[in-house]
Structures are given as structure tokens and as C-alpha cells.
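Section 3.1: Structural characterization of target chains.
Under the original work plan, the team committed to producing a structural model for every single-chain target entering the pipeline before any wet-lab resources were allocated. The record below documents one such target. The sequence was received from the expression subgroup and is listed exactly as submitted; it comprises 121 residues.
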Amino acid sequence: MDATKTFTDSDLSNFYGSENWYRMPLFGGALVTDGVHFIMERGCGWMATDILAVVSLEKKVRGEDFVSVKFRKNADGSAVITYDDGNGNILYTQNYDFADCPVSEINFYFENKVLMLVGER
């Protein structure tokens, strides 16, 4: 990953609310917030598009009004993204053999067709 495009947990904790929303036309007009756009611009666009694909297309997830999404990277570089209903009931799990994300955890919410960092809700 290009060092100029990296980010830290501290960078992500700076996002509270969002001044801008960015439309993602391939995903039914879903929107992403400033925080999600920030990580997309810094090399993790794959993560946001994968999340939007799952919440838009996966039968067990797409009908939910609210989805809590958790990205976790393991020490060996593999990762998992879990999708739950906000009450800990897992709806879908996606495993990755390798993830080039500079942080080990990111939590998102998908609500009202908007993908956001948890601090932006």
C-alpha cells in the first residue's frame, strides 16, 4: 500500500457526523459518508464496495433496515467482515485470504441506504 494513502485508528476516530454524502450508483443509489469516502480514497475502496454489494444483493442482508458491519484483520493478513442485525445476530460472514487495510478493525453501520463509520451516526 502506498504510504501516502495510509490511515490510522486515530484518523477514523475523528469522524463525527458527515457534511457530505457520496452517491454510489452501482448499488441502488446507496450513499457513503465522509469517513467511508476517506478510507476509499486511501486504498480501501474494495472494502466499501464489497460491503455495499453484500447489503444490496445478499438475500439475508438486503431487507434489513439496519446492519452493523465489522471488519477484522488477523495477524496473518487474512480478514473477515461480519454483518449483523445490531443485536448480535449474524446475517452474513465474508472471509478474505488477504486484506491490505492499514488498521485491524473498522466498524460501520448501514442504515437508510447510507454506509457510515459508527462515529458518523
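The chain has one domain: 3-13+20-120.
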